[in-house]
């Protein structure tokens, strides 16, 4: 319970830090970028699909005695367009989040660095921006490989459980917890990577605080499942993940205040 409580406290502290001078810009810029890119893609995709539906159903009308059904046909076509907009929002919310995590990794690394140095007071290892960008991108690919093949195994387990009566209620919980662990790892690793801690070492340290990492990641996962909220939660999650690393998982953890 102590680890669960601390995970929630770090998220609350991250919300406060996100509004502080010196960090506010690193939070606002990716938010604006996400909203503009997501909004543009969502609008263009929705307009194209809605236009295709309207064009495909343009001739759907009845004459004579069945003309009274035209109102119902128009309603169904309109409902289909609305449903497409809703489904597209959910689909793009999940896919877009994954894409942005890879593209914005270097920027999130800068944010994690600012938080780390502010809280710990310790400078990071010196390296050029080009070297840092390459290192962060390679790290993201390494993490992608880590979760990809494990996700396939977990998916097989979930499918097996799904077809077992009574036990199948656990299928969604298993997948949710696994996804929560991955997100916890993702956002904590920005700080670990800045300190150039090897990926395998970082994973070993995460396992010493399983409930803290799982709670942190699961809460973030729940927030990323909310359309629009997922556009602004990423920098806050990076700040919270950095706090978890600095106070809990660093080689020399910084004592928490209060």
From TrEMBL:
GO terms, molecular function: high-affinity sulfate:proton symporter activity
Location of the protein in the cell: Membrane
Residues in coiled coil: none
Pfam family, one: EI24
Record has Transport as a keyword: yes
A cellular component annotation (GO) from this entry: plasma membrane
Alphabetized UniProt keyword annotations: Amino-acid biosynthesis, Cell inner membrane, Cell membrane, Cysteine biosynthesis, Membrane, Sulfate transport, Transmembrane, Transmembrane helix, Transport
Transmembrane segments: 25-44, 65-87, 145-164, 170-190, 211-244
Membrane topology reported for the UniProt record: Multi-pass membrane protein
GO biological process: cysteine biosynthetic process; sulfate assimilation
Protein name: Sulfate transporter CysZ
Organism: Alloalcanivorax marinus
């Amino acid at each position: 319970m102590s680890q669960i409580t601390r995970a929630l406290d770090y998220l609350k502290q991250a919300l406060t830090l996100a509004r502080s001078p010196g960090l506010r810009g690193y939070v606002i810029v990716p938010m604006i970028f996400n909203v503009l890119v997501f909004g543009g893609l969502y609008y263009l995709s929705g307009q194209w699909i809605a236009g295709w539906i309207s064009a495909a159903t343009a001739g759907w009308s009845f004459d004579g005695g069945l003309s009274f059904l035209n109102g119902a046909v128009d309603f169904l076509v309109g409902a289909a367009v609305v449903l497409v907009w809703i489904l597209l929002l959910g689909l793009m919310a999940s896919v877009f989040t994954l894409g942005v995590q890879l593209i914005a990794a270097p920027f999130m690394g800068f944010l994690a660095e600012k938080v780390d140095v502010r809280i710990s007071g310790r400078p990071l290892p010196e390296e050029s921006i080009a070297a840092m960008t390459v290192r962060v991108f390679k790290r993201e690919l390494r993490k992608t490989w880590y979760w990809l093949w494990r996700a396939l195994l977990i998916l097989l387990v979930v499918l097996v459980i799904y077809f077992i009566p009574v036990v199948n209620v656990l299928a969604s919980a298993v997948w949710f917890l696994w996804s929560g662990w991955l997100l916890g790892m993702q956002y904590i690793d920005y700080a670990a990577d800045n300190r150039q801690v090897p990926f395998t070492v970082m994973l070993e340290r995460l396992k010493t605080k399983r409930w803290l990492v799982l709670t942190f990641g699961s809460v973030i996962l729940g927030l990323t499942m909310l359309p629009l909220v997922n556009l602004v939660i990423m920098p806050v999650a990076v700040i919270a993940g950095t706090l978890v690393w600095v106070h809990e998982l660093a080689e020399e953890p910084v004592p928490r205040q209060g």
